[in-house]
Amino acid sequence: MKKSCAKIGLILAFICLIFTGLLKWHKSVFLDELPEYKRTALEVMRQPLEDRKICVTRSKMTVEFPASFMLVAAMNPCPCGHYGEDNPAHPCTCTPAQIHRYMGRISGPLLDRIDIQCDIQAVPYTMLKETTPSENSASIRERVVRARQIQQQRFAAYNVTAQKPIHCNAQMTPKAVREYCQLDAQCDRLLSHAMDKLGLSARAYDRVLKVARTIADLAGAENINSAHLMEAISYRNMDRADWI
Ligand SMILES: [Zn+2]
Q: What residues are neighbours of ligand 1 (ion), with CB under 5 Å?
């Protein structure tokens, strides 16, 4: 009995250490080569990604720990890394079965909880030589800070009576999404079409709206327009049927 209590205590202390130390400050977690992690380890992230907390239940008690963090992950499209590339010098050498097995290590429910999924193509040589200046990090930071200020102002009234205050778009509840991400008729038709075409889930629907709201905030726009919405839909890259 003593041994079991000590083990539970050790586990809770470890979780405490991680989620009050590492994640308390809304840190980012970067997982490179995502499919190389054990599937069981990846699946336990589903609850904190959804609820921003972790519940540890034992026979006599349940303890909740805050776990609000940003997950950033990277992966190749196949084990050799060249599937989908238009490069005869590096053809993909994987079999369809290998590609499916590799991609299958990331479950649909986990993918569903990732707001932005981008398929990044290799940069062609002509673009590497490009000398046209692009937006620098300092000005991007300014836009992000402005967008966060817009979000703080947006939720100020909501937070007066809310049980759980909202500080940014990602933390919106489904009810808040309905209130703050309203679409006009054109956007509504567009999203309805995308939902059918891409087979998006209800969870993905809310996440698309939150991302569209953030894109609109970054652009300083009061309302979500079709360009913001289309960009947000384009970030559901791995929901597409032609992904593999
Ligand atoms: Zn390959």
A: 78, 80, 83, 92, 94
- Residue where a domain terminates, one of 114, 149, 183: 114
pLDDT value at 19 more than 80: no
- Predicted pLDDT of residue 240: 53
What is the C-alpha to C-alpha distance for residues 212 and 218, in angstroms, rounded to an integer? 10
Per-residue pLDDT tens for 85-132? 878 888 999 999 999 999 888 998 998 899 999 888 888 788 888 888
Do 102 and 167 belong together in one domain? Answer: no
Residues 223 and 191 in one domain: yes
Both 102 and 189 in one domain: the answer is no
Q: How far is ligand 1, taken at its centre, from the CA of residue 95, in Å?
A: 7
Q: Ligand 1 centre from 111 Cα, in Å?
A: 21
Rg (CA), the chain: 21
Nearest to 170 by CA among 193, 187, 147, 190: 147
Each residue of 35-92: pLDDT tens digit? 999 989 999 889 888 888 888 888 888 998 888 888 999 999 899 999 988 788 889 9
Sorted by sequence, the CB contacts under 8 Å of residue 184 that are 6+ apart come out as 223, 225
Query: How many domains does the chain fold into?
Result: 2
**Ligand 1 centroid distance, CA of 83 (Å):** 5
Query: Measured in angstroms, how far is the CA atom of residue 109 from the centroid of ligand 1?
Result: 24
Residue 57 belongs to what domain range?
2-114
- Ligand 1 centre and the CA of 94: distance in Å? 4
